[in-house]
DNA sequence: GTATGTGCAAATGATTTGCGTGCTT
DNA sequence: AAGCACGCAAATCATTTGCACATAC
């Protein structure tokens, strides 16, 4: 999987960014991630591919990609920024399991409409938002006594 | 207005907290605030009442009040925590004017229901959330050419 | 009286930045 | 060749904490 350029790298090229080996590595790390790593996590994954990369470059590159709308910066309230590949298509949000830290993604059209309507009613056009839900798993008390383990 | 104990001080007393002069001052500052000051802001207002207060105490006291659910910590994404008096009654959220930094509050029952429903559908009970909207003011281009100033 | 709070300054953790060198276009 | 990008270490910013002293109950 190292022969193909990642979708993020493609986006960078399209935007005319100078592509360095470090940026390529970070782009690949993000493209291959299905979770929401923080900077340290991106740095570690990148380091395993290219051990001479510096964390300052990871910070700079993530900021660059974020500003270019290639990735999205998330904030789950723990003081560290997290990142995921930006999805232009549909707005999705996150529900964080407060016990395990698991992150589920969801999207809901009614929710999108209500947010826009609220902004509009206040005389504003919605240009950004921040929305995370925090929850605890509901016990399914009637069946399957063999679950409820953390991972 | 310095003769009456503030509502926050009352809440502290009710919870059996040891009430110091500093805590009383910070409680009053928060009770008197209609905006959403950050720690530095609370510190400055408190300092004007009691110049010998230290910012470490402000941090400690705000954390204490937050944990006791007497105040609520907000995060508008600018790297500083902000605070407001906790309202037990109805959940309200904030819309931030990205141009001026103004903060409008809103509440919407449909929104509350949808959030709960989303969590439930994912198998979770909603125990917390973070929700802010960011917007730009819609120009009312047909009338009143005398507005649209920032404050 | 004793546990707890406070002030100060130093420590921390995440993130940014200045500077000299290296690499992409 | 020229201008960005990188690595390193120092700087910054918000916040926390250790310690000696002060204070509420």
Largest sheet of chain A: 3 strands, mixed
At the fold tier of CATH, the topology name of the largest domain in chain A is Arc Repressor Mutant, subunit A
Strand order of the largest sheet of chain A: 4-3-5
* Shape annotation of chain A: globular
Name of the top-level CATH class of the largest domain in chain A: Mainly Alpha
Classify the secondary structure makeup of chain A into a structural class.
alpha+beta
Helix content of chain A: 25-40%
CATH architecture of the largest domain in chain A: Orthogonal Bundle
Please, what is the CATH homologous superfamily of the largest domain in chain A? Winged helix-like DNA-binding domain superfamily/Winged helix DNA-binding domain
Number of strands of chain A: 5
Q: On the 0-100 scale, what is the average pLDDT of chain A?
A: 89
The domain count of chain A comes to: 2
Order of helices and strands of chain A: HHHHEEEEHE
What's the multimeric state? Answer: homodimer
Portion of residues in beta strands of chain A equals 15-25%
């Amino acid at each position: 999987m190292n022969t193909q350029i990642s979708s993020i790298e493609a986006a960078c090229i399209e935007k005319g960014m100078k592509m360095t080996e470090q940026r390529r590595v970070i782009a690949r790390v993000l493209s291959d991630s299905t979770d929401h790593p923080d900077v340290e996590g991106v740095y570690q994954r990148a380091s395993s591919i290219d051990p001479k990369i510096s964390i300052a470059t990871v910070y700079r590159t993530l900021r660059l990609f974020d500003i270019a709308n290639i990735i999205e910066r998330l904030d789950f309230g723990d003081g560290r920024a997290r990142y995921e590949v930006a999805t232009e298509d549909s707005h999705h949000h996150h529900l964080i399991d407060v016990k395990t830290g698991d992150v589920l993604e969801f999207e809901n059209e009614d929710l999108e409409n209500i947010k826009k309507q609220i902004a509009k009613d206040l005389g504003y056009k919605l240009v950004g938002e921040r929305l995370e839900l925090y929850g605890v798993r509901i016990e399914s008390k009637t069946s399957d006594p063999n679950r409820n383990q953390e991972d």
